[in-house]
Amino acid sequence: MPLTPESGYARRDYVDRISSQEKLYAEINQLFGTDPRPAEESDFKKLPYLDQVIRETLRLFTIIPAIPRQIENDTQIGAHLYPKDTILIVNIAGIHHNPKLYPEPYKFSPDNFTPEAVSKRHRHSSIPFGAGPRNCIGKEFTQLMMKLSLVALLRTFSFHTSIKLEDIKLKPGPVETISGGYPIKIKLRDEGARH
Ligand code: HEM
């Protein structure tokens, strides 16, 4: 992934990621307090930052980088006329890393998904699950599972890594995965801080 190797960038990036984790933990902690009940779907509208973190993760690491579409009619896009039956490739990863949409496209920044930031962009500026009538049928299920797992894990553990975002290598393919693994340290949160 072509991240800018600026001096100080990696450290800032690490600090940003840790502060996002703690901001998310604080949001979760504020909702549940000392109540040990597990999270349920109705909780998620009270956890806006959780939604932002997940949407930003799916933007930065676009699991399905491109999808094909065969067009039914002659179609004009910008200066180009594409004849009926042409197969076009929608470059989802390209959209997700377009600096006109995301000024620092290779930085992890959940603020890209505040309601205000979202309202300023085209509604198809973030399409990790595709779009239209053939979009992913697992979209809602996947997001629910990600939210349930993240809340459950962050209530008990904190996550640490010395890997910089710029060192993460992606294996190109129809489904993008991380090459060479991604070692992390998992620490149990203090009993006092854990609910
Ligand atoms: C993070 C996880 C996932 C991502 C990023 C993802 C992404 C996508 C994308 C980009 C498409 C193509 C949509 C399009 O052409 O507009 C798709 C299609 C599809 N996905 Fe997912 N998906 C995920 C998880 C799942 C899960 C968990 C299921 C099943 C429970 C699932 C079932 C499907 C099916 C059946 C299609 C084909 C839909 C069709 O052609 O009508 N996906 N997914």
From TrEMBL:
GO molecular function, one term: monooxygenase activity
Keyword vocabulary terms for this entry: Endoplasmic reticulum, Heme, Iron, Membrane, Metal-binding, Microsome, Monooxygenase, Oxidoreductase
PROSITE patterns: CYTOCHROME_P450
Cofactor(s) in the UniProt record: heme
Places the protein is found: Endoplasmic reticulum membrane; Microsome membrane
Bilayer topology term: Peripheral membrane protein
Gene3D superfamilies in the record: Cytochrome P450
Record: residues binding heme: 136
Pfam families in the record: p450 (PF00067)
One GO cellular component, as annotated: endoplasmic reticulum membrane
Similarity field: Belongs to the cytochrome P450 family.
PANTHER family assigned to the protein according to its UniProt record, in alphabetical order: CYTOCHROME P450 4C3-RELATED (PTHR24291:SF189), CYTOCHROME P450 FAMILY 4 (PTHR24291)
The protein, known as: Cytochrome P450
Lineage of source species: Eukaryota, Metazoa, Ecdysozoa, Arthropoda, Hexapoda
